[in-house]
């Protein structure tokens, strides 16, 4: 049986909930189910696809946990809109991955690329010694040609020798980590705080100087539990917000 072009193969070794989760995710990623759209209820999916309620519930729960959809009390389940960067605040995605999931046009502008010498807080977080260096990247991200997020990354040279030879206006930093250095981002420690916009940030976002900005600080760890990136992301505090699901165990 199928729904909206989504077919589940009951003879496959792949569990039905995983087929359903992947099918819905593909439809969202390809724009077949637009952002903000209301998804069918679990009962409607069960009737259309001939599956049990637990299968539908498990697929939806996985999509909600991953941040692709959200459940609104008394209204239903919806594909998340792109307006809030916070929809993926509890997941470690690259910017390109987020935009591909949302099927949104995007681009990156490299503002600065330079080597940074010793700074106590930075080097402490990345476990570096005096005499070592970090590559400092400053990039502005645009979505549908509108300013979206300003990102500063500090990448330790001892972990990534020759990292400055890549074009980070065209390539994802995390993609380079994985494909060129065989290092995978597994988790991060994040801090969210408020900042006043600097002159440069105000100009980039088209806001007044000292306007409210949201700042997300990340220390990113690889599969060896080693810090491989310190980043700060800045967003317009007037138009961005964060949403979290809080569950009592």
Give the arrangement of secondary structure elements.
Blueprint: E1 2-3, E2 6-7, H1 16-29, H2 42-49, H3 53-66, E3 69-72, E4 76-79, H4 95-102, E5 106-116, H5 120-126, E6 134-143, E7 146-156, H6 173-181, E8 185-196, H7 199-205, E9 212-222, E10 227-236
Antiparallel strand pairs: 1-2, 3-4, 5-6, 6-7, 7-10, 8-9, 9-10
Task: Give a structural overview.
This protein has 249 residues and is α+β, with helices and mostly antiparallel strands. Helices cover 27% and strands 31% of the residues. It is built from seven helices and ten strands. The chain has helices at 16-29, 42-49, 53-66, 95-102, 120-126, 173-181, 199-205, and strands spanning 2-3, 6-7, 69-72, 76-79, 106-116, 134-143, 146-156, 185-196, 212-222, 227-236. The strands form three sheets. The protein has a six-stranded antiparallel beta sheet. A hairpin with a 4-residue loop joins β9 and β10. The longest helix has 14 residues, at 16-29. It is globular and about 65 Å long. The relative contact order is 0.11. The model has no long low-confidence stretch (mean pLDDT 85).
Please outline what is shown here.
With 249 residues, this protein is α+β, with helices and mostly antiparallel strands. It is built from 7 helices and 10 strands. It has helices at 16-29, 42-49, 53-66, 95-102, 120-126, 173-181, 199-205, and strands spanning 2-3, 6-7, 69-72, 76-79, 106-116, 134-143, 146-156, 185-196, 212-222, 227-236.
């Amino acid at each position: 049986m199928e729904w909206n072009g989504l077919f589940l193969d009951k003879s496959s070794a792949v569990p039905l909930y995983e087929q359903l989760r992947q099918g819905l995710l593909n439809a969202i990623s390809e724009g077949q189910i637009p952002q903000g759209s209301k998804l069918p209820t679990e009962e409607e999916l069960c009737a259309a696809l001939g599956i049990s309620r637990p299968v539908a519930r498990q697929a939806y729960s996985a999509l909600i946990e991953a941040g692709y959809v959200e459940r609104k009390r008394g209204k239903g389940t919806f594909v998340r809109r792109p307006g809030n960067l916070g929809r993926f605040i509890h997941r470690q995605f690259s910017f390109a991955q987020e935009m591909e999931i949302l099927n949104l046009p995007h681009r990156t502008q490299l503002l600065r690329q330079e080597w940074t010498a010793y700074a106590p807080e930075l080097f402490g977080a990345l476990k570096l010694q005096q005499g070592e260096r970090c590559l400092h990247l400053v990039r502005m991200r645009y979505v549908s040609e509108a300013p979206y997020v300003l990102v500063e990354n500090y990448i330790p040279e001892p972990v990534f020798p020759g990292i400055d030879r890549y074009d980070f206006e065209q390539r994802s930093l995390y993609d380079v980590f994985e494909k060129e250095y065989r290092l995978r981002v597994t988790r991060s420690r994040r801090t969210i705080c408020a900042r006043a916009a600097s002159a440069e940030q105000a100009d980039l976002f088209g806001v007044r100087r000292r306007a409210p900005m949201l700042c997300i600080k990340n220390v990113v760890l690889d599969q060896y539990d080693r810090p491989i990136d310190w980043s700060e992301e800045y967003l317009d505090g007037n138009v961005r917000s964060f949403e979290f699901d809080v569950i009592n165990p």
